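My current task is to audit a protein record that another person submitted. What it holds is a sequence and that sequence's fold in token form. Thanks in advance; the entry in question is below.
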Amino acid sequence: MSALLISSLAWLLLGQGIKYVIDQGFVAQNKNALTYSLGVVLGVVIIGAISTYFRFYWMVWLGERVCADIRKSLFAHLVTLSPNFFENTRTGEIISRFTSDTTLLQSVVGTGVSMALRSLVMFVGALILMAITSLKLTLLVFIAVPLMLIPIRILGAKVRTHSKLSQDKVAKVGSMVDESLHEIHTLQAYNHQHISSKLFTQKVEAVMQQAKRRIHFRALLIAIVMVISLSAIFVVSYIGAMMVINNTITVGELTAFVFYAVLAGGAIATISEVIGELQKAAGASERIVELMQTQADIVDDGKIELQAPNKSEFALQLKNIHFSYPSAPKRKVINGLSFDVKEGQRVAIVGHSGAGKSTLFELCQRFQEINSGSIEVLGHKSTDISLDNLRAQFALVPQDAVIFAGTVSENIAFSNPSASDSDIRSAAKMAFADEFIQQLEHGYESELGERGVKLSGGQKQRIAIARAIVAKRPILLLDEATSALDAQSEQFVKKALEQLMLEKTTLIIAHRLSTVVNADSIIVLEQGKIIAQGNHADLYKSSPTYKEFVDLQLVE
């Protein structure tokens, strides 16, 4: 602000210097006065240039800083939202708000606001000096001001509306790019390139059509303001020239007045242009604020912090659980489910697809909120335990292993960032991943690429198992962790998991007979209900659903 005021005052003083040069130098034909005044004018220009440098530097830095802070806040908020939000919102849409929307705000704060503030100071200063130079001519200029406010008010709102619509369409383009590139194998396997290109072209053209409407209103706003402001300057200059002829004002005063009038007109034109930018940014900021104000479905109001080792007779107790997804509230996914899991016990869960097995894992970790009933973890209600602490009791190995873009070490240590190199290597050996890791170009420091594209399915799974091992958490959730492994690797990993599960409570979504046979207890789910529970031998005799499951496995 200091640099802004100094630079603006310097350019305003330039008008007085011009007036002095003309009246005391040219008109009076005084060489000394001319030399002195030109020297002063040059000094003022240098001061203005230096202060302009600092104004520009600090304002652009401010734009970058604001953009960085918004991105940090936005990301910190997003990672707290529940899976429901991401199921209903496309990833590309969110990425668009991170990139194009925040970049637009950066441009406006760093450049637009700077120009607007400078133009505002210049406009006010120019008006004051115009009034000092000639009050009559200044009053004539004021007639044009209300005429300029009308288009700014009407067209500015149009620009804002179309800017938001334009950003929404840009987000849809981003969503399609994100989706297509992530699923490029499927896209090319079904020769969908040409169809995808046509769909993409349609979306891009929709963005272009929306942009044309926004540009039309913005250009119209600038043009109208320029016509009004410059017309006012020409009319006032003509009246001023008549006053010089009548000796009412001097040539230097008229020149200074016109200089200030041009400054004021230029300032108004700049402000009108910046208003268009601000309206565009307002549309982007609405989208960011909308995302920031999205509330998490899961309210973290638990106060209990479980300390390891936290011993309890039961690791998990589910009591009369009822659950429906918010998107389909009438369809019960879990319906009156109750069972206990003792510490150190190994429980297998079997059932047809859609029986509610994976949902059960989500409920245990409180990724979804149950409709009624209660879940107790290590002797405490899950809602009474802080969310971070609750999830710190579980180590999850999903059926589709998740690999992040990073090194092998970073992926294994993802569950426990404080893990030492020896912990990471030990976990990899237990998961029988060490051998193939050593064969990678840089061993444990090898980059795995986005989503682990450099690994086979079985290798990804072993990395995920190593991650669960290094987490050192009391309860294991295994979504048939060996399903993606070849026969040899499966045997190795099963031995490692056997050692791991000796000291852990384990819930296993079972797809393979070998997993079921070794379980302490087997739960058979159907449409969210327990229809049978017991050991393998008893269930094979008493449960038709379980018998069907086992017989299919034996046939295979």
About this structure: The mean pLDDT is 79. The first helix runs from residue 2 to 27. Residues 106 and 297 are 31 Å apart (CA to CA). The radius of gyration is 36 Å.
